[in-house]
Amino acid sequence: MTALAKIVHTAPEVEAEPELTDGFHLVIDALKLNGIETIYGVPGIPITDLGRMAQAEGMRVISFRHEQHAGNAAAIAGFLTQKPGICLTVSAPGFLNGLTALANATTNCFPMILISGSSEREIVDLQQGDYEEMDQLAIAKPLCKAAFRVLHAADIGIGVARAIRAACSGRPGGVYLDLPAKLFSQVMDAEAGQKSLVKVIDPAPAQHPAPEAIARALDVLKSAKRPLIVLGKGAAYAQADAAIRSLVETSGIPYVPMSMAKGLLPDTHPLSAGAARSTALKDSDVVLLIGARLNWLLSHGKGKSWGEPGSTKFIQIDIEPREMDSNVEIVAPVVGDIASCVQALLDGMGQGWQQPPSDWIETLRTKREANVAKMAPKLMSNASPMNFHAALGALRTIVKERPDAILVNEGANTLDLARGIIDMYQPRKRLDVGTWGIMGIGMGFAVAAAVETGKPVLCVEGDSAFGFSGMEVETICRYGLPVCIVVFNNNGIYRGTDTDPTGRDPATTVFVPDSRYDKMMEAFGGVGYHVTTPDELTRAVNEAMNSGRPALVNAVIDPAAGSESGNIGSLNPQSGIKKKK
Questions:
Q1: E-assigned strands of 309-354?
Q2: Does residue 6 belong to any structural domain of this protein?
Q3: Which of 335, 364, 393 is the last residue of a domain?
Q4: Does residue 534 share a domain with residue 395?
Q5: Which residue blocks in 82-130 are alpha helix, DSSP H?
């Protein structure tokens, strides 16, 4: 053996360095392990690199211009997919911007996780003045379903898993996940890191109703002379479309859909009482609520929208037991997930189910046809400037011809009138302001609807509502999304004709007259249209949707056409004092 051979033979083996991972990669790996493929957010300290790395790892990262709109996108992504939408924000002000969307998601029962970077605990707890110092966890807790903070890289897998399960299980909602800046750069053994990740099994397990609850509900339904089903957005979220349709048609009970439940059955279905809503609610004697709450949108189950106090019996399906009796007595509470509860009701009906009396069905049919006939002439005008009815009549036809497109809708008159005028034909195709009725959801919802479904989006906005999120047209153009925005421009909030009694300033509800919102879209490379008649509106929207390009139609509406607060002006208090001259 040569000397060289001896040296080679006797040299100690060099141990391979262990493979390492860090907090950045563990967060990404935890999300991907659970089938989450898209993040909505705004980059900045300390989460800029997390977005870059997520994109490099194959995730889709959609960057917005404002965190609230990214949060709205995440929230509606959760509604559409039944998986928690992810919103990623920077600390303090960015977190607060996203918090509005998180609270709204919780109120609307949309599964969403707000992930925010934050300052270091040691400095925050001693209030020593760190960059964007804020106890974000404490602030988030009252406004969401659950809130967690992760301090160690080894706990990232558990933290993400807990957030996912909390967002999806039971009644869905918003979850906050606080990730301090130091967490991202923490390093650990890659193999140990991989083992620390958790794949959430059955995040939203079925919750079957008690047999006695189903029997009680069916007994109450059998006793009804004028039964009614009210479908809420919870029914749309459940994706139990076939079972719900079968329940309606097997029972023969007419139904009223809340706005985001429109399309579960086509609005043109013979049992749809949407166009006779007032009569249906007021005259019904038994109401089955499916995924709908007796909140302000249903006049709390009492008052002038309903019959005499105590004349209506309510059956309610909800996964949250505490929802029962929240406003009025629920005589037959059915607690469980909607799919299981609806199927149990169907199974209990059997072959000999007696459908409602024909005179009740005929009463609603007659009222529906009368209301539709009364509305028809208002939808046919081609006058310039347009009023809301004429403009929405044009869009009504477009949606009928494009039932697969997703309609996003917000505003005051624009929203309230569109709910009744524009028929929907497929489930989860109408997205709007939901339970809180807040404005500003439009662009976020439009972006997520296009990203998550790949379908064309028609976003119908009042000019006031558009102003909350209008800068996101740049986001729509940047990602080349098939979104056509129609802005109903009547120069103001409700109307554009108010004046300042002092003559000093514009009225509080008035905008710059004759604004050209279409130019905003053109500035970012999209297509802009300026229209003044329903015929022009029809041509512009069809051309835009056929092209698949980002587009904005500035639809000129008569400044005097609107009414204050649309259909909820009664919620706006009036002064009880008359000032003496």
A1: 313-318, 332-335
A2: no
A3: 364
A4: yes
A5: 93-108, 121-125
Residue 375 included in any domain: no
Single out the residue of 395, 386, 392, 415 nearest to residue 556, CA to CA: 386
8-state DSSP, 217: H
Query: Residue 478's pLDDT is what?
Result: 98
Task: Write down the mean pLDDT value for the chain.
Answer: 94
DSSP assignment of 489-501: E-SBSS-S----T
Terminal C-alpha separation, the chain = 117
Residues 174 and 109: their CA atoms lie apart, in Å, by: 8
For the segment 102-157, what is each residue's pLDDT rounded down to a tens digit?
Answer: 999 999 999 999 999 999 888 888 898 888 889 999 999 999 999 999 999 999 99
Rounded CA-CA distance 499/480 in Å is 40
The number of distinct structural domains making up the chain is 3
In a domain, 2, yes or no: no
Prediction pTM value: 0.94
Contact 338, 250 (CB under 8 A): no
Same domain, 151 and 38: yes
Distances (CA, A) of 473 to 399, 519, 534, 555: 22, 11, 24, 17
Roughly what angle, to the nearest 10 degrees, separates helices 338-349 and 241-251?
30
Same domain flag for 29 and 171: yes
Reported as a single tens digit per residue, the pLDDT across 492-545 is 999 999 999 999 999 999 999 999 999 999 999 999 999 999 999 999 999 999
Domain region containing 180: 20-196
Residues 142 and 280 in one domain: no
